[in-house]
Amino acid sequence: MEDAEGCRILEVKGSKKMKPDISQHEYIVVTIQRGEEKGYVVFERVPARDTEGPTSSMTSLDSRSSRNSSINTSVGSCSSVNANDKVTFLTDGKPPLHHETTWTITFQAQDRPEFYVAASIATAIFSCYPEYNLSSTNCYFFVNVFEYMLAKNCKGGVYTKGSVQAGTTRGVKLWTPKLKTGKKEPDIEAELLSQLRTFRACLETKAARAAEVQRKVEERVEERHMMARQVELQQVQEQHMEELGSEREARLKKEEEVERERKEKEREREVRLKKEEEKEREREARLKTEEELEAGRKREEELKRKLEEMERQAALNRAQ
After folding, report:
1. Which of 42, 133, 121 is nearest to 83 (CA)?
2. Distance of CA 105 to CAs 28, 61, 102, 117, 165, Å?
3. Nearby residues of 139 by Cβ (< 8 Å), 6 or more positions away
4. 167-202 burial string, b = 16+ CB within 10 Å, else e?
């Protein structure tokens, strides 16, 4: 997991590092989840002078060089300095090295708040208490306020007491909602609500921009799909026209073949009729010839008969 965007809070721990020299440091470990991925974010308060790196009086909370930053013990003078409230996202997905736990708040699946709630609490604390003082607004104070604001604003969390006691000054907790210090206390709950509204507005703006980008991407994708469908439709139409052209050409070719066959048969029929006419003429000529021959034969017979009759008559005449 490379970032905490869109993550839900599974568990929040108040952690304490205890050293033999009695130097102690408290910090918050937030376990987050997005889908199947888990990650860890550390919130802590140190004096601003420690931002350049650990000194001889400060001990690194986690010695792994792969981590983004180190968390240091809070020691120094009792004078107030600017606070350096750190947020460390452990990019290797491993929890920080185990130290003592002062308390744990665990959230069930249906009650898990979004990660920006924890970020808003840390921001509100810094906005209301921007100074670090070893005897008051120190790391104990930061964890104490964080615990209270988390429990108050995130319902459904299951609270479990830790193995060691949270940091105190002379046995009294450093901060409560009704703390009386003789000076006007900042309204941290109002500040938290303001920070929550700011984070929500930022997330909504980002979500709106992401939705707009997604909408434009989908529009472009839809345009590409429409263009692809138009090209495909055009190709189908062209293919259909080609098929229609091929079918029409084949049909015309077949019609031409049928017409050729019809003409061929017509020519054959004409030839056959001509032959039959010629045969009929030949038959008529033969019949005419035969009739003429028969008529000639009959004439010859008639002449012969007449000659014979004339000869008989002549003979009769001679006999008388």
Report:
1. 133
2. 11, 22, 11, 14, 15
3. 25, 26, 27, 44, 45, 46, 74, 167
4. beeeeeebbeeeeeeeeeeeebeebbeebbeebeee
Q: At what angle do helices 139-153 and 115-128 cross, to 10 degrees?
A: 130
Locate tokens 């952690």: which residue? 15
Amino acid at 319: A
- The answer to whether the pTM exceeds 0.70 is no
- Candidates 168, 139, 133; CA nearest to 73 is 139
Contact 110, 94 (CB under 8 A): no
In the predicted structure, residue 50 carries a pLDDT above the cut 90 = no
Distance CA 10, CA 303 (A): 150
Judged by DSSP in three states, 269 sits in helix
Residue type for 263, please?
A: K
Query: Nearest Cα to 50, choosing from 89, 83, 78?
Result: 83
* Burial class for 302, CB neighbours closer than 10 Å (0-12, 13-18, 19+): exposed
| CB distance 139 to 26 below 8 Å | yes
Residue 65, pLDDT above cutoff 60: no
DSSP string for residues in 178-216 = T---SSPPP-HHHHHHHHHHHHHHHHHHHHHHHHHHHHH
Give CB contacts under 8 A, 24+ apart, made by 255-264.
none
Residue 311 confidence (pLDDT) above 70: yes
C-alpha to C-alpha distance for 92 and 68, rounded to whole angstroms: 9
Amino acid at 44: E
Which token pair is 270? Answer: 């004409």
Q: Which two tokens stand for residue 221?
A: 């994708």
Contact 189, 150 (CB under 8 A): no
